[in-house]
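Feature request, filed as a ticket because there's no other form

It would be nice if the structure record came with a short human-readable summary line next to the tokens. Right now we just get the raw output. Example of a typical job, pasted below so the devs can see what we mean:
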Amino acid sequence: MYYPYFRGRQSELLALRDTTSKLAAKKRVIPIIEPVMANTVGLTAFLEAAKSQHPHVIITNPAVGELMGQATTIETLIAPYLSLAGNQISPGFLVGPTTTTAHINAFLTKYGSRETVMVFDRPIQATIQGAIPRMNTAPVKPVAVFIDGKVSPSLIQAFGPLKKVLVRDGFISQARNADYPRLDFFSDLHRTYMTTGYHGFGDFSVIGDEYNPGGGPAHAVAIHLTELNVNHEIDTNHFVSNRTTGNVDTAGKFMEALDKLVAHVRARRRSFSYSQARAEFEAHHANQHFPGLPTVKRLSIRHHLELIESII
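Raw output as currently delivered:
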């Protein structure tokens, strides 16, 4: 099972909506969404599209963004969907540095009779280790998601028979688009997670784990496109515009980067046959159309979802 981690920004939610029918076919992709935007119109639209289509998780206590500390707002938003027949939403809880056993117990008391997900993205404090037995005795045991490197492997084993998921950040972010190399290794976790005792794996798509509420001017345009290599590992292609200075002619710089992407995928057509996002990139190239940088990000995210869905 694949658990991609998103923070509920518009480009991410639109990419998920674009792939709803494809993800519904196998039901092996379970997006985890940590809502960060106070305007929840996009999130509601996604919930409407996916409510009976494929499983997904909504974090009820975001650690970053405009909804941090607004658990009641999120719980109120998802409550109508939880009562629907055929509902596919699982409430999620983010375990952080200030989490206590009481916090976890309260979450399990409220939602423990249904599928839930606990996400551990910080070293586990002694104050919550006492909650592990409660997780294992909940009416429906939660899925335990561990962000790679944040919890010691020996402590992960203490969670016993719970289903465990390992989420690893495979995207190597750069401070400037101009600094991206032509190619980066992304991950081989899709091949190795089961050998290390995990039920599922995940990543932060082509965005990365670091939360950045806004971007600056696009001195260079970079398009990120993941690809399965000959060793069945995943690489990230970075197609960067020729011009990398100044903050003018973003559309022209996009076309420079898009020229490189299209040349690459045409030379390796069979490697990208599954991707509707790739087809959209090629359509924009054929029409010499710049759809805007948010759409470029949406297509890159959608492509990565389509890639993983095609190989699991």
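Something like this underneath would help us a lot:
Residues 93 and 299 are 28 Å apart (CA to CA).
The radius of gyration is 20 Å.
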